[in-house]
Amino acid sequence: MDTVPYNFVDAVIDLFPQRTLKRPLAENVNNTIWKDVIQLHYYNRRYFNVYIAEVDDRFQIVFEREGSPERATIQELRQVAGRYLRFIRVCNSYGEDEDDKVLYLQKDDQKTLRQMLSPAFAVSGARLSIGRTSGAAQKWIMEGLFKKIYFHELNVPYIETIAEEFLKDQIEKSPVLRGINLLHDGPWPLSILPYLKKFLLQTGMKSRTFKQCGSHRINVEKKLDTAYKPRKP
Fold this sequence. Notes:
By secondary structure, this protein is of the alpha/beta class. Helix content is 36%, strand content 19%. It is built from nine helices and eight strands. It has an eight-stranded mixed β-sheet. The chain starts with 5 loop residues before the first helix and ends in a 10-residue tail after the last helix. 26% of the residues are buried. Residues 225-233 have low confidence and may be disordered.
């Protein structure tokens, strides 16, 4: 391991998510080269959540540090965190925020959203959490990220056909998807059943989780064959 190039070690560690970087890597790796790189990432990584809300026909974007009220503009994040910046959660939020760190995008600025998130997106550990607010914000997020950014965990409601297409694409294309939670904002169509079966079988039941919330839904869990019965987390 001592002969492995530094750049290779750095590229490998760059792929690890927050939870793995801390434990077991930072606490258990003793090789000098690997340990130095792990410590560098461990102490310099900056993890931020992205909150998106619809306000007066625009979309408000807020970057907030994980576990802290600290906020920053995208320019500040790039200057301070640089290559150690990671976006680990994208979700919709509630109401207008008058903080001077807030960014506003127009309805047709979805490409700008992708360009901001992509370079620092934590592929191996990011979550999409779309709650029960205005359908416009939910739809805008899914349309903007569709076929461009892939997640480790999904919490999504049914919002027109984009929700179904988004879910199918994530199951088909995301190499890191491990959890799906279907929310009850509308009944999910039965056409998603083959995709959910595929999701549960891809790497085995023990590493995959699926659940539903609410009463207005198709009862996916009962309709899945017994052999594919998902375990509840």
